[in-house]
Amino acid sequence: MIETPYLLFLGDVPDQLSAKVAQGIKDWRPDNAVGQFRMQNCGATVGLADMSLEEAKQAGAKTLVIGVANRGGVISAAWKDVLVEALHMGFDLASGLHNLLHKEADLVTAAKNSGCKLHDVRIPTVQYPIATGKKRGGKRVLPVGTDCSVGKMYTALALDEAMRARGMKSTFRATGQTGILITGAGVPLDAVVADFMAGSIEYLTPDNDDDHWDIIEGQGSLFHISYSGVTLALIHGGQPDALILCHEPTRSHMRGLPDHPLPTMEAVRDLSLTLARVANAGCEVVGISVNTQHMSEEAARTYIDKVEQEMGLPAVDPFRHGADKLAAAIEAL
Amino acid sequence: MIETPYLLFLGDVPDQLSAKVAQGIKDWRPDNAVGQFRMQNCGATVGLADMSLEEAKQAGAKTLVIGVANRGGVISAAWKDVLVEALHMGFDLASGLHNLLHKEADLVTAAKNSGCKLHDVRIPTVQYPIATGKKRGGKRVLPVGTDCSVGKMYTALALDEAMRARGMKSTFRATGQTGILITGAGVPLDAVVADFMAGSIEYLTPDNDDDHWDIIEGQGSLFHISYSGVTLALIHGGQPDALILCHEPTRSHMRGLPDHPLPTMEAVRDLSLTLARVANAGCEVVGISVNTQHMSEEAARTYIDKVEQEMGLPAVDPFRHGADKLAAAIEAL
């Protein structure tokens, strides 16, 4: 667990896109952040109050979160002065960058001296068990995609919000670095050793109240050669009661694989259900999340209506239109 | 690559079953071993000449292979004197035990002093790439099982032998610790980090002659909750042209999962083919390998005949009857 609230470190990144992680925290867990810290020349903002380390400390911040991705995931020399000072002042540090805080000698030393923690959410710190496949109490829903990066995390976070708005009990369960930083906990599934993947998801989504829903962040796609094994471990470890199909209609091929066309939504539905029912015979596909970011409002509406009719399932773009339709479908189960 | 030939270390294990790895080397790559080394009270033999370290050195042995599994995968204190002496004499050491040679300070020191290598085949030493899904030259065949431990490695090794006997070009590609020790190379897939699983199999089975077959050692099962993600990474990274279904008819439930019944062979055939065709549209199921070790000769014959008729595919127990029928099916492709 990463201690909240955070101060969001935006460093000196040139543009808004580089601040994706900080933006996600601001959008989904605004109570987790007291403000943002920007260096000179920073080209990004997430719209929170600019604070010095001292001001953030006064406001109760416990952890300085590196909320940006720079080229190559590097912890730049320009950032070091701020990070070391933050450690001296008693902040923990948290990062999802490829280059680890733990590999930076000056940060390790400073953390040791001040008794502060370095959280590298890119790598697991838990020795996960082998999956047992035993039926657990509570319910689970998992978004599965026609491809990688089609909006599965966004769908899960929006669904969590919509279910709470309906008074349902739900918990978003992060399986990727951004999700872990947003919520302060989770499993960095892509960095888990093969034999323990499914077990890590059982660990992440334990026994719970009968009317509680874990909303598990999806990863990869069963049809994406590079990461399909990760997706299947999620399906089998998560033993979901409900699946949500996620699709981005303008993709011409699988992300990073120019020779591989996208599967149909029907193919993803059928294959995902067949596999999910190995772990949970009662699993159902309950709805469709369409990522229409590259479509006009009219084209999006037309497309979503068509998908609803063809698939016989509620469909929605949760970013444009909210996720309540999906929450309703889950409540109706 | 582990340097051959080996001296097989049987230590002081109490029974034959504990010498499974050494037995596999003796059975499948007899040319890789010059003899066996047994301590007092050793209850196992693989039928090779007993040799001292000195005699093995004279016979040309390069590596002392720990060919046994003891309780907990521990490198026992009783073994240490022999292992340290072997390093001093210039042997490399190789082990597939859970406890690593590299974690034993005295072995690390001895290896350093003598310039010898410690091979822990349980963990990867290569930084594997992310899978690209690009079509590679040459052909590949993969055994897929209704469950774990149904004979997939045995099937692959027997098939390799049968294909060579027919004059076909083939290479057994190890994906587990025993297979790696038998052949001296491979990928310890269960210990690879999630994101690189499929890439490790692409790395293991690179471009090759058009008429060359890689025979990939299978792992897990698509229907085994704990390891299914590993199996799917094998299918997608291996982009097999041919699959062989492996089954053990007397299992009452999935190995280690008492609540999970075995799937039918038809279900494994259909699901495996659907997934394999994502990576290689031309993939076919070519035959069935039945593990009849718990059946009488008559019951085995009857069962295999029935399976052949019902499935319309050549079926055989490669241990009892050889794998030539499967090799013929692959040659006929």
Count every beta strand of chain A, where a strand is a DSSP E run of 2 or more residues: 11
Class computed from helices, strands and strand pairing of chain A: alpha/beta
In spatial order, strands of the major sheet of chain A run 7-8-6-9-10-11
Oligomer: homodimer
Distance between the termini of chain A: 32 Å
Q: Which shape of chain A, going by the Cα principal axes?
A: globular
| Tally of individual helices of chain A | 12
List keywords for this structure.
globular, homodimer, alpha/beta, 12 helices, 11 strands, 333 residues
Task: Provide an overview of this structure.
2 copies of one chain form a homodimer. With 333 residues, the first copy, chain A, is an alpha/beta fold. Chain A is 36% helix and 17% strand. In chain A, the strands form 2 sheets. In chain A, strands 7-8-6-9-10-11 form a 6-stranded parallel β-sheet, sandwiched between helices. Chain A has a 5-stranded parallel β-sheet with strand order 2-1-3-4-5, sandwiched between helices. In chain A, helix 8 crosses helix 9. Chains A and B meet through helix 7, helix 8 and helix 9 of A and helix 7, helix 8 and helix 9 of B.
Question: What is this entry, summarized?
Answer:
The structure is a homodimer of 333-residue chains. With 333 residues, chain A is of the alpha/beta class.
What is the fold's blueprint, element by element?
The structure is a homodimer of 333-residue chains.
Chain A: E1 6-11, H1 20-28, E2 33-38, H2 53-58, E3 63-66, H3 77-88, E4 92-95, H4 105-114, E5 118-120, E6 139-145, H5 152-165, E7 169-173, H6 177-183, H7 197-204, E8 212-216, H8 228-238, E9 242-247, H9 265-279, E10 284-290, H10 297-311, E11 315-316, H11 318-321, H12 324-331
Parallel strand pairs in A: 1-2, 1-3, 3-4, 4-5, 6-8, 6-9, 7-8, 9-10, 10-11
